[in-house]
Amino acid sequence: xxxxxxxxxxxxxxxxxxxxxxxxxxxxxxxxxxxxxxxxxxxxxxxxxxxxxxxxxxxxxxxxxxxxxxxxxxxxxxxxxxxxxxxxxxxxxxxxxxxxxxxxxxxxxxxxxxxxxxxxxxxxxxxxxxxxxxxxxxxxxxxxxxxxxxxxxxxxxxx
Amino acid sequence: xxxxxxxxxxxxxxxxxxxxxxxxxxxxxxxxxxxxxxxxxxxxxxxxxxxxxxxxxxxxxxxxxxxxxxxxxxxxxxxxxxxxxxxxxxxxxxxxxxxxxxxxxxxxxxxxxxxxxxxxxxxxxxxxxxxxxxxxxxxxxxxxxxxxxxxxxxxxxxx
DNA sequence: CGCCCGACAGGGCATAATGCTCAGAATCCA
DNA sequence: TGGATTCTGAGCATTATGCCCTGTCGGGCG
Lengths: 159, 159
Hints:
The structure is a homodimer of 159-residue chains. Chain A has 159 residues and is of the alpha+beta class. The first copy, chain A, has 2 domains: 4-54, Winged helix-like DNA-binding domain superfamily/Winged helix DNA-binding domain (Arc Repressor Mutant, subunit A); 63-140, Lrp/AsnC effector binding domain/regulation of amino acid metabolism (RAM) domain (Alpha-Beta Plaits), CATH 3.30.70.920. Chain A is built from 6 helices and 4 strands. A 4-stranded antiparallel beta sheet of chain A has the order 2-3-1-4. In chain A, helix 1 packs antiparallel against helix 6 (151-157) and helix 2 (27-34) packs across helix 3. The two termini of chain A are 20 Å apart. The interface between A and B is large, with 76 and 76 residues. Strand 2 of chain A pairs antiparallel with strand 4 (133-146) of chain B, so a sheet runs across the interface. The structure holds a DNA duplex (30 and 30 nucleotides).
């Protein structure tokens, strides 16, 4: 699996980079920008799709635009035997956007959005109310010091 | 700012949801699915763009497909007066995808990808080498217990 | 070395989509 | 009620798409 995933070459990464710069760009425009034939871009995009190079569109939706300006990372300490069922229960809380099971001091790290501080307190309460949750630590994101980016990695991993 | 951000109505959220379901869908197809005119969908999409409802395409790129299967969250404890310049220096490390300044026990939370454990160790070393970094705590993401999702929130916040 | 296969380029065709305009209808608000 | 805003549907010129096809080139294998 690890080796299979490394099947993107320099043209793939250039294509991804070009798509990142112009998400609404047509295949024709992309082909022009990249100095490739339209056919090639089409074939490459189909290949990228096949190789799961694209994650969900949902990641592009700005929670703040939906009225959820607060972002917090909640570390959750759980009773180990209840981890599986807990994930299902937590998934029932809409404001939890993402949750990773971790090594280290916390068992779960949740990416959570909220309307305001009060709402965040409410959500934390809901999380604490889930069976198997022992404790939570809430850290409010005050500033996006490094906004999400992939271009440097595209450059680094390209051929 | 908080109130301005709440300017999406039920049609907007339905449109976002439909786009999330079919990211490659044409305006014509979306309009059909939503029972709206093509013109309306176009106008709405332009409005969404204006309201910063769309984050970067980069968020859709799967690091694993680039050969970076390991995901880790690195908490960084810093010397406060050096936070600003540190962010700039950290931004020079391509494997850091995102970094938030936090309240709570850590000052910065970094989302980091790596080739393998050894690479992660190397990256952590680079982070530790940055001026102003006192300490780091690395937590490896073992499993995506709740995969990134926005649909529940779209449903909740829609009109 | 020669052959085969995959990738790429460029041409092409029928169809669909886009960007934009416009007029009329419907809805909302003061 | 009247005015403003939003939505609808029609329409036009242009562009893009999905797919097919042929030819070339480079790499791998026997």
